[in-house]
Amino acid sequence: MRLTKYVTALLLCLGMSTTALAAENHGRILVLLSGENQLPLKEGKTYPTGYYLNEFGVPADGLQKAGYELVLVTPNGQAPSVDQLSVDPLYFGGNSTEMLRIQSVVANMPGINKPHKLAEVLAGDLSQYAGLLIPGGHAPLIDLANNPQVGELLKHFHSAGKPTAAICHGPITLLSAQDDPEDFEAGLIQGKTSQAKNWIYQGYRMTIFADEEEQVFEDSLKGGKIRYYPAKAMATAGGELTQAKAWTPNVVVDRELITGQNPFSDHALTKALLAQLQNGH
Questions:
Q1: Rounded distance, CA 39 to CA 48, Å?
Q2: Environment class of residue 210 by beta-carbon count within 10 Å: exposed (0-12), middle (13-18) or buried (19+)?
Q3: Domains of the chain with bracketed CATH
Q4: Confidence (pTM)
Q5: Residue 165 and residue 162: Cα distance in Å, rounded?
Q6: Which candidate, 112, 217, 198, 212, places its Cα nearest to that of 155?
Q7: What string of DSSP letters covers the chain?
Q8: In angstroms, rounded to a whole number, what is the distance separating the alpha carbons of residues 144 and 236?
Q9: What are phi and psi of 130, to 5 degrees?
Q10: In this predicted model, what pLDDT tens digit does every residue of 101-158 receive, in sequence order?
């Protein structure tokens, strides 16, 4: 009690309110990012990729403003890369100033150049995290969608009923939460009928980057083709997909899971995640 009174008095001396103190104690959010930056395509081609700036930066900014501490993690502890195509005012309402502000938010985020390794996080106390955020960009297709360790992480948040928010291509990560995600992905790549085994999100309502949107992306690849379409993969696994008109915001909430369809769903996803966190879901 004495310590609380002392801190409160100190804040008042500094011109800060007790509301500011409360904002510092909302907890930690784990942010799972890909550590890869070269997306394999069909016929041995590759595409330079990473996270989408707004899909990472906008939710991160909203969470930090709400008083949450962000803890960054990649599978191997590699620093995540930004997809240069996402450094575009188009994804910030045409506002270059806002884009630069979000760039600064990301650049100054603790751990952005040296995130935690996933194995280290799994070996630690996962109960300390209030929620999980998975940004998009095509990079999650490389090392998050087929990773048993990622599946272990997802299962924790699922069983604890804590919010898991994923946007654009981020929801493809959910496929790791089954018995053999590598085999499932191999089937998708080979064009075979894959069957998810004990997928924890079976029957969940969700969304992800739509086929129509993916086709527009493929048009920029000069003949390159991605190895499988994420929306079809999620439906094949047993997800109940809800897709909106291409390039319009769309967020689907089902139990602890929050998914956003495309880059323009960033603010809506942030709002939905904060609502669940603040309601103690």
A1: 6
A2: buried
A3: 26-278 (3.40.50.880)
A4: 0.91
A5: 10
A6: 198
A7: -HHHHHHHHHHHHTT--HHHHHHTTS-EEEEE-----EEEBGGG-EEE--B-HHHHHHHHHHHHHTTPEEEEEETTSPPP-B-GGG-SGGGGTT-HHHHHHHHHHHHTSTTSSSPEEHHHHHHS-GGGEEEEEE--SSTHHHHTTT-HHHHHHHHHHHHHT--EEEETTGGGGGGGSSS-HHHHHHHHHHT-----SS-TTTT-EE--S-HHHHHHHHHTTTT--BSS-HHHHHHHHT-EE---STTS--EEEETTEEEE-SGGGHHHHHHHHHHHHHTT-
A8: 18
A9: -85, -20
A10: 999 999 999 999 999 999 999 999 999 999 999 999 999 999 999 999 999 999 999 9
For residue 222, the one-letter residue type is: K
Q: Which residue has the tokens 């948040």?
A: 157
